[in-house]
Write a structure and sequence with these properties.
3 domains, Zinc Finger, Delta Prime, domain 3, DNA_pol3_clamp-load_cplx_C, 16 helices, DNA_polIII_delta, transferase, two-stranded parallel sheet, DNA replication, DNA binding, Helicase, Ruva Protein, domain 3, Rossmann fold, alpha/beta, five-stranded parallel beta sheet
Length: 330
């Protein structure tokens, strides 16, 4: 089920018995959570929210079996249960008997589409994938966000904003709010405004760490790593992001070596064009063999800490200090 189909169902009120909101775009999942809850505004007696440990099979079934109180329907909203990544046969067997009076909605960042529970929800209602929007859709969303407050932005400035913030809608929304407040009575966003108040995304800090490491500026790379730790980023997540960036750099550089155009590379790599532009610029100083070595090294270190042979913080430090990653192209 597409997000447009869910929008239509929410507007009409003609809903299925069960839905699964899944994907990495937490902004969209939270937005749809609010939309579902708004259907029961002023009727908290008929709304049950189950999260994480409380969202087990028995609790979900008990809540779903509860009849609505002086109403036609009740909402059971389940968040980050983890049930779509393991066996949940009891709940999968129960779903076909879900009462017509219950609207059951799951919200999960990660799911395994092979599970019985995933397939049971798909049969009963709809699976709504909340992925990061395409570049043009994200630009349109950001421009409309500003326009609602009477603010405008040129496309080139908007691209600079996306390059600084990244494609996460929640973070982008927060930066847009800061811009709106900063502009005051002015109605046009400028590059100077971005330089004055926009926060650098974690993704951009990862880019800077890779650049410093490749230039053998180890102190700089470790300083940036310390900044991320101070922001409460987990070392394991940082290592995973470093690994992903090396992989993206290698893919983009390989496509560029085949003389493919920027737009085509973006389509093949499944990345927004502004990000591909940034990757191409960074990749100019690196060889494909060096990037492949970095990717292998990151994967090996990630395996080492996950297996308990090494602390995750040490794994990141070793990756940033490894001079073998700096094979420059001539």
């Amino acid at each position: 089920m597409s997000t447009a189909e869910l929008e239509s169902a929410l507007k009409s009120g003609v809903l299925s018995r069960a839905y699964l909101l899944c994907g990495e775009e937490s902004y969209l999942r939270r937005n749809y959570k609010a939309r579902f809850f708004s259907l029961f505004a002023g009727d908290s007696m008929n709304v049950t929210l189950l999260r994480e440990e409380a969202a087990n099979e028995d609790n979900i079934i008990a809540a779903a079996d509860t009849l609505p109180f002086f109403a036609e329907r009740r909402l059971v909203f389940v968040e980050e249960s983890g049930l779509f990544q393991k066996s949940a046969d009891k709940l999968a067997d129960y779903l076909p008997a879900l009462p017509e009076s219950t609207l059951l909605v799951f919200s999960e960042e990660s799911v395994d589409k092979r599970t019985r529970l995933y397939k049971a929800v798909a049969k009963l209602g709809g699976i709504v994938e909340c992925a990061h929007p395409a570049e043009q859709d994200l630009k349109l969303w950001a421009a409309r966000y500003l326009l609602r407050s009477g603010k405008k932005i040129q496309e080139s400035v908007l691209e600079q904003l996306l390059a600084a913030v990244g494609g996460d809608m929640e973070m982008l929304g927060g930066e847009l709010e800061k811009l709106i407040a900063y502009l005051g009575a002015r109605d046009v966003v400028t590059r100077e405004d971005l330089a004055a108040i926009i926060s650098v995304s974690v993704e951009n800090r990862i880019f800077d760490m890779i650049a410093a490491s490749c230039e053998r500026k180890t102190d700089r790379a470790l300083s940036l790593y310390g900044d991320l730790l101070a922001l409460k980023e987990k070392p394991g997540r940082i290592l995973a992001m470093l690994s992903r960036q090396y992989r993206q750099l290698r893919l983009v550089k390989a496509f560029a070596a085949e003389e493919k155009r920027e737009k085509e590379i973006a389509e093949l790599a499944g990345q927004p064009q502004w990000l591909v532009r940034k990757l191409l610029q960074m990749g100019r100083q690196l060889s494909l063999s060096g990037l492949a070595a970095a990717e292998r090294r990151a994967a090996a270190l990630e395996t080492a800490y996950k297996s308990g042979r090494m602390g995750e913080q040490l794994a990141v430090e070793l990756l940033l200090c490894d001079s073998d990653l700096t094979e420059y192209s001539l």
